[in-house]
Design goal:
single chain; 97 residues; alpha+beta; Gyrase A, domain 2; four-stranded antiparallel sheet; 3 helices; 42% helix
């Protein structure tokens, strides 16, 4: 996948299609909540497989049924197309509306 810095307009358009995601400290940020610890870890595993395939890895933490995520493209020092791709996949795998 292409690794390209996002323009401000591209970022704003992308956020419209990512419910619950926000900009925090120049990163894409979201807290996911699941029904159980097992469900949260299962989701993280599914995301990890995709993240490894695209060679783009999240900053995240897990406490019981919650997973807090921050995305940024470190080598570019900003948000990129990879962050949007990963956020979209996370959203789809979470089965949130």
């Amino acid at each position: 996948m292409a690794r390209r810095k996002l323009t401000k307009a591209e970022l704003e358009r992308s956020l419209e299609g990512l419910p619950g995601w926000e900009l925090m400290d120049n990163k894409l940020h979201k807290m996911f909540k699941f029904d159980s610890f097992a469900e949260a870890i299962g989701w993280m595993t599914s995301v990890a497989i995709f993240a490894d395939k695209i060679d783009h890895h999240p900053e995240w933490s897990n406490v019981y049924n919650r997973v807090t995520v921050d995305l940024i493209t470190h080598d570019l020092g900003t948000l990129s197309t990879l962050d949007i791709d990963l956020a979209q996949r996370m959203q789809a795998l979470s089965r949130e509306d």
